[in-house]
Write a structure and sequence with these properties.
Elements lengths: L2 H17 L10 H14 L24
């Protein structure tokens, strides 16, 4: 294998390894994240961020069935 091929495989392995970093949990909506940040600030005696607005009700869209 040439040096170029080895370098390519090394970079590909590095990119795949770094792409897998992160937490393994369901995604948080912006509202849920803001509520959680507010709770943590209250527990830690830090300045409390403003209260988030509740999200609007989810309305079905005509093309939802296709997805």
């Amino acid at each position: 294998m040439t040096a170029r091929g080895t370098l390519t495989l090394l970079m590909l392995g590095l990119a795949l390894g770094l792409a897998a970093c992160g937490r393994k949990a369901p995604l948080d909506s912006p509202y849920e994240a803001a509520v959680e940040a507010r709770k943590q600030a209250q527990q830690n005696d830090e300045p409390v961020p403003p209260e988030p607005k509740k999200p609007a009700e989810d309305r079905p869209f005509i093309l939802d069935g296709l997805l």
